[in-house]
Amino acid sequence: MPTNIPFSKKNITDKDLKIVNKILKSGWLTHGKYTEQFENTFSKFSNSKFALTVSSCTAGLHLICLAIGLKKGDEVLVPNLTHTATAHAATYTGAKVRFVDINLYDGNLSVKDLLKKINSKTKAIIVVHLTGISSELDKIIEICKKKKIFLIEDCAHALGTEYKSKHVGNFGIAGSFSFYPTKQITTGEGGMVITNNKSIFKKIKILKAFGIDKEIKQRKIPGLYNVKELGYNYRMTDFQSALGLEQLKRYNKELSLRKKNAILYCKYLKNIKNLKFNNYIDTCSYFIFPIFLKKKYRDRVIKIFKKKKIGFSIHYAKIIDEMKYYKKGLTRNKNSKIYANENISLPVHSDIKENNILHISKLIREALNEN
Question: What are the residues whose beta carbons fall under 8 Å from the beta carbon of 291, sequence distance 6 or more?
Fold first, then answer.
């Protein structure tokens, strides 16, 4: 029987490590050629006009919020079931975050509840393409245009996700991606912002580097530059960029294997009583494969997974407006709460083999007494 199946597996090769080592030895660790190459390659991959490396997906979302001018007195709508980073990014600007319920069981923003939450103070909506499943973008875009609201895309889970043959991140004013260690490609920490708006691109480019008006290669005299606004140090190092670049070059194969594994899960998990999961979605990038169980069954599965050393996670176990920081005076959302109580994230990365998926599926059947 397969044992010790990890939740995520880094697709980093010896060649990748040699390039990183070469950069480290060179002493030129930032502002290097690999950062520019990574941005250009990512722009082509996502078919966006502009791409900018950032220190994290959270930093990218924060920069987008700053670039559209969010401030105190504005309100931003975000899903109640997401990583707290989505809400933090808007809160950093002084804006107030209000939480919207989600759909069961794709986990994305409920358009019905969204319409209830919009008011005259709503300046932006942040959609999250949870687990790699695209949000209902056509309906949300129509709402944003009608109400003159900015749309921001949190694409932390969505590298390779498409909506109507177009990569997500291209539908709103900008989108931010994550390269955290569990994600489809990793740079340790790090992220990427894409946009098709030139003014937003220019704004973010300055804001992510202290507000400095000139890049190093543009300075006629070293150290001679001007700071025209309050910026941040949200840059990515060159060796991180090299690591991300090499993985991105191989990502189409990685994505294909993730989709193949998702199909296998659908095959082996079908017709299990008390278990729910989404049917296979070809446009999903399958950051993870989510399943849903009532609490008593989830507890059983978790216990068995821990005993058998099966990697898993929960995305997410607690809705944001139950977090102490955001809790006061906010209304919990029914679907978000159900999702939080029932979901388990199964590993679906390219290193998972069919016998691993079969083994995991059998353990789930065992936990639900369906041997």
Answer: 269, 275, 276, 277, 343, 344, 346, 364
Identify whether 126 is part of a domain. yes
Q: Is residue 5 part of a domain?
A: no
Asked if residue 138 belongs to a domain, the reply is yes
Give the CA dihedral 364, 365, 367, 369, nearest 10 degrees.
Answer: 170
Task: Return the amino acid letter for 296.
Answer: K
What is the tens place of the pLDDT at every residue in 244-274?
999 999 999 999 999 999 999 999 999 999 9
pTM: 0.96
275 domain-assigned: yes
Token representation of residue 370:
């369906």
Same domain? For 242 and 256 the reply is no
Token pair recorded at residue 7: 């939740």
Q: Which of 122-131, 145-154, 230-239, 361-370 has the lowest mean pLDDT?
A: 361-370
Per the structure, the count of domains in the chain is: 2
Give percent of the chain with pLDDT exceeding 90: 88
Its domain, for residue 357, covers 251-367
Question: Are the C-beta atoms of residues 351 and 4 closer than 8 Å to each other?
Answer: no
223 with 88, same domain?
yes
Strand-pairing partners, residue 99, are 78
